[in-house]
Write a structure and sequence with these properties.
A 6-stranded mixed β-sheet has the order 1-11-10-9-12-13, with helices on both faces. The protein has a 5-stranded mixed β-sheet with strand order 4-3-2-5-8. It has a two-stranded antiparallel sheet with strand order 6-7. By secondary structure, the chain is of the alpha/beta class. Strand 3 (91-99) and strand 4 form a beta hairpin. It has 2 domains: 13-66 and 225-461, Hexokinase, domain 1, CATH 3.40.367; 80-209 and 463-495, Nucleotidyltransferase, domain 5 (2-Layer Sandwich). It has 15 helices and 13 strands. It has helices at 21-34, 38-56, 124-142, 189-198, 211-222, 281-289, 299-302, 304-320, 343-351, 358-368, 374-406, 418-422, 426-437, 464-481, 491-495; strands spanning 66-67, 80-87, 91-99, 107-114, 151-156, 161-162, 170-171, 203-209, 226-232, 236-243, 260-264, 411-416, 456-460. The termini are far apart.
Length: 511
């Protein structure tokens, strides 16, 4: 195929006029398959509310609803210097955050260290030793020649972990390419602390957190209306503040029923029983071929890891359909490779501003060695819109469910992650779905709906894995100083060697 002509400014009106009947029919079928109407959104949300409650019950449910032992929001008056450690799949980030006297302000310095691939399949000693070495380098560089009290550390460990205490966590399973023997099923904190002690690094781990909880706390530090923290990226998750009296599975701890505690929902597991989510045959294939079939059903329909694969599966299916002429006579070997397309591929297509979809044509030719005819480009563009719109609309169900459960008529939601930040129209589509689910007709104070006026607004989050981790460390230390020890295994050890330690203090304990 020759080039598609000169690039022109956007003008998509009437672009379906020359699309053949078979492709028009397929577009109509895909629209019916991927469109989630208002009634369905409301049904999903109601089921979501019941599943959130079930996760908090003694019996539990598919959504874990993990108590994080972060007991309340920051006031903005937190002060001190704290370290934050963020262990990602590609990089390790170390931050030093200073919380000054000014309300809601913070200063941050940070360094990134590459996480060598060989570490991911090496030994546990090598992993913790490398992390401790990075911490040591950071402190020596920024505090050369200084004698330091032990700096409190918030460790963002965003791998599935069970926490009975805020400063410990038992790894359930590795993700993000890690596969290190002898770590799963064990507390990750003691070997980390041993590596730190071996190097005489002046830090004290104060809180082990999930990035979603960090997002909630960091965003609430600068915005008092912040009620929910979300991640819409490679995966999806949310955290919010619940009263202990609404958590039956914590009844045995005899906590103050009005005491707030952050809940890490892990809501990617919503509807693992397949009762309400509108799964297509393509969603079923993704689940069946995944490493853990039957798990993370919600995540597999809205998270960035799966959007490109969903798109790819539809196109391969259409190519193999004898009643549809798409990529006819071309070699689609590259397209047949599982997970060869990521969410950014769809993002680029939705961002293509040209009437003739020249950039989409170039992407397919360069990346997949497929030359698309104009009708094929129209189908491709519409399919991306449908997949991206469905993801945004379904994601709104979780936010709406928390709002309805908690009775929030107005709230801000802090969101982070590549899909939220980079996928075209995700924010607007999610906002439209929220309006439908929650029956908004006017915005705050009777003003028209729209940015800044929606009763519940999803906003870009503050740095949860840095500032959020530091703030949770600050809140935890303050709690220990005040004699509140819920979810803290060894309060005296947490204070030892820090400025917070009281001279001549005796052994403390209990709940």
């Amino acid at each position: 195929m020759v080039g598609l002509g000169p690039k022109r400014k956007p003008s998509r009106r009437g672009s379906m006029a020359d699309v053949p009947h078979d492709i028009k029919q397929e577009i109509k079928r895909l629209e019916e398959l991927f469109t989630v109407d208002t009634a369905k959104l409301k049904g999903i949300t109601e089921h979501f509310i019941s599943e959130l409650a079930k996760g908090l019950s003694k019996e539990g449910g598919s959504i874990p609803m993990n108590p994080t032992w972060c007991m309340g929001f920051p006031t903005g008056h937190e002060t001190g210097t704290f370290l934050a450690l963020d262990m990602g799949g590609t990089n390790l980030r170390v931050c030093e955050i200073r919380l000054p006297e000014e309300v809601g302000e913070f200063d941050i310095i940070q360094s990134k260290y590459h996480m060598p691939e060989e570490l991911k399949t090496g030994t546990a000693d090598e992993l913790w030793g490398y992390i401790a070495d990075c911490l040591q380098q950071f402190i020596e560089y920024h505090h050369e020649g200084e004698r330091l009290d032990k700096l409190p550390l918030g460790f963002t460990f965003s791998y599935p972990a069970t926490q009975e205490y805020i400063d410990h966590g038992i790894l359930q399973r590795w993700t993000k390419g890690f596969d290190i023997d002898g770590v799963e099923g064990k507390d990750v904190v003691p070997p980390f602390q041993a590596a730190v002690a071996e190097r005489n690094i002046p830090i004290r781990l104060t809180a082990l957190i999930n990035d979603t909880t960090g997002t909630l706390i960091a965003s609430s530090y600068t915005d008092s209306e912040m009620k929910i923290g979300c991640i819409f990226g490679t995966g999806c998750n949310a955290a919010y503040m619940e009263e202990c009296g609404q958590i039956p599975k914590l009844e045995h701890m005899k906590l103050d029923p009005k005491q707030p505690i952050a809940i890490n929902c892990e809501w990617g597991a919503f509807d693992n029983e397949h009762q309400v989510l509108p799964r297509t045959q393509y969603d079923i294939i993704i689940d069946k071929d995944s490493p853990r079939p039957g798990q993370q059903s919600f995540e597999k329909m809205i998270a960035g890891l799966y959007l490109g694969e969903l798109f790819r599966l539809v196109l391969v299916d259409l190519n193999e359909n004898p009643n549809v002429k798409i990529f006819h006579g071309q070699d689609i070997a590259a397209l047949k490779k599982p997970y060869s397309l990521d969410a950014s591929f769809l993002s680029d297509i939705e961002n293509d501003p040209y009437e003739n979809l020249q950039e989409t044509y170039d992407r397919f030719k360069t990346h997949l060695k497929i030359e698309c005819a104009r009708p094929e480009l129209e189908l491709i563009r519409r399919l991306c819109e449908l997949i991206g719109t469905r993801a945004a609309r379904l994601s709104a169900c979780g936010v709406a469910a928390i709002c309805k459960k908690k009775g929030y008529e107005t709230a801000h939601v802090g969101a982070d992650g590549s899909v939220f930040n980079k996928y075209p129209h995700f924010k607007q589509r999610g906002a439209a779905a929220l309006a439908e689910i929650l029956d908004w007709t006017v915005g705050r104070d009777g003003k028209p709906l729209g940015r800044g006026h929606d009763p519940v607004e999803i906003l870009p989050a503050e740095d949860g894995s840095g500032v959020g981790a530091a703030l949770i460390a600050a809140l935890t230390l303050k709690r220990v100083q005040e004699g509140s020890y819920a979810g803290i295994r060894d309060p005296q050890a947490m204070l030892k060697g820090t400025k917070a330690e009281k001279p001549g203090s005796k052994e403390v304990g209990g709940k």
